[in-house]
Amino acid sequence: MTTVTSQHEQDAKDLQKMGYAQELLRDMGGFSNFAISFSVISILTGATQLFGYGLQHGGPVQMSLGWLLVSFFTMTVALSMAELASAYPTAGALYHWSSFLGGRAMGWVTACLNTMGQFAILAGIDWGLANFVIGLLGWTPSPANAVAVFAALLFSHALLNHLGIRVVAWLNDFSAWYHIAVVFFILIVLCLKGFAQPVGFLLKFNSTDGFSRPYSFIVGLLLAQWTLTGYDASAHVTEETHDPRRNAPWGIFIAVAVSIVFGFLMLAAITLSIPDLAQATAFGDNALIEVMKLRLGPGMGAALVWLICGAMWLCGLGAMTSASRMVFAFSRDGGLPAHKVWATVSKRFQTPANAIWGLFGFALLLAVSVKDYSAILSIAVICLYLSYGLPIVARLYARLAGKGGEIGPWNLGRFSTPIAVTAILWIAFISVVFVLPPNLQAGQMMLKVLAVLLAIWFLWSRTHFKGPKYHA
User: Is-cis flag, bond preceding 275, omega within 30?
Assistant: First the structure.
């Protein structure tokens, strides 16, 4: 008991040094911290929602080589972020890291991009889930039905996050085990049934997009990159995590590593179970549902997809938790209009209630404003990865200038700089690729977002926003 109490006191002191009082309930252990990132990454969400997209832009090779390529470079980003999480364990996470190392302007841009990315990732998860539910229920895939189901799912996530971190923490723990169990179940069922294709099928290229092979493969990388997104969740809940300087970075690293391995095995098994590639590709967004039904029969196939939908729902729950903490932290420092409203913490539940319901409204607005589903996901990936990249750039610049800032107990040592450079180059690459056709709407939205951010900065934030309280 004494050890636990002393660790609580140390965590609160670390937070106080950075200028903040302990307001949120610090009740998460190391596993809970890992679980929230693992749940938001959710290989059962990203890899399945864009399975049809992957078949159209690269085919089976997208599920094998595409996945491994993205996994390698994503790990460099995750490692750099884990190092920063160990040095600066606050709910502001990326926004605070950029501010401490690169100044308030960089911090403000990071926060805005991360907030936009959080809106988009939440909208993308629940919009994809809504379409799966409609397909499984056999309802007409009309805009009205999609919006109604989407709103109901989003409401359920907001309500539970409002009611308390203990419930959500338990569900996130459960979510990690649930994801692992469902992946194993899928692998066992498909292996017992027997694969429809030889292993060499995983290297087969397929495309129906009319682009050249290299271009088609590159834009198809969105499948893997969308899946391996959201692991900053571990950093956003550091103020609710015991010993966050160690638990948060391990949470980020292990969540990404486990997702890479299990994601590859699952995608390989499902791809090898495709009876007819042309037929599966023609199913479009419902490719995974139809492949499961064709291979396992309507009953078992639908049952497995329902299990996957359960994972998507848990993924959305974790995404709401992560996003609300980011909005809370940014508002606490006066970074958003009506910041006092969004920074309000429920006295009864010790959760950022107003931030949660604000996210509900903005995510709903984003989902109904963007026509192409893949464009929503592109916006989420680009905004989030740019927000990941800016603090890494700031840390690298500070290190080269001899102002490296704090170094936490979890660090990369002499490998820190080359890993950071690789991460930055990869983020720059995907930020260009994912606004190209067929995701031009994402590019148009990004230009509008950047224009609005520039206007807000020069008209208001430049003179009114003071940044985080702590300065390294």
Answer: no
**27-115+124-136+165-318+371-464 — its CATH code?**
1.20.1740.10
More confident residue, 363 or 367: 363
Q: Do 344 and 352 touch, CB atoms closer than 8 A?
A: yes
Element (H, E) at 171: helix 165-193
More reliable by pLDDT, 180 or 25: 180
Task: Identify whether the C-beta of residue 328 lies closer than 8 Å to the C-beta of residue 118.
Answer: no
A 10 A CB-CB count for 189 gives: 18
Using CB atoms within 10 A of its CB, is residue 252 exposed (0-12), middle (13-18) or buried (19+)? buried
Q: Which residues contact 81 (CB under 8 A, 6 or more apart)?
A: 94, 231, 232, 235, 252, 388, 391, 392
> How much is the pTM?
0.87
Type of residue found at 141: P
Q: Do you know the residue count of the chain?
A: 472
pLDDT, tens digit, for every residue of 408-432?
899 999 999 999 999 999 999 999 9
**Nearest one of 279, 258, 241, 298 to 78, comparing CA atoms:** 258
- pLDDT tens for 209-222 read 989 999 999 999 99
> Cα(400)–Cα(254) distance, rounded to whole angstroms?
29
How is the chain split into domains, by residue range? 27-115+124-136+165-318+371-464
Identify residue 463 by its one-letter amino acid code: T
CA-nearest of 73, 371, 378 to 222 is: 378
What Cα–Cα distance (Å) separates residue 205 from each residue in 54, 220, 241, 438? 11, 11, 44, 18
Distance CA(267)–CA(274), nearest Å, equals: 11
For 25, the 3-state DSSP assignment is coil
Distance (Å, rounded) from C-alpha 94 to C-alpha 83? 12
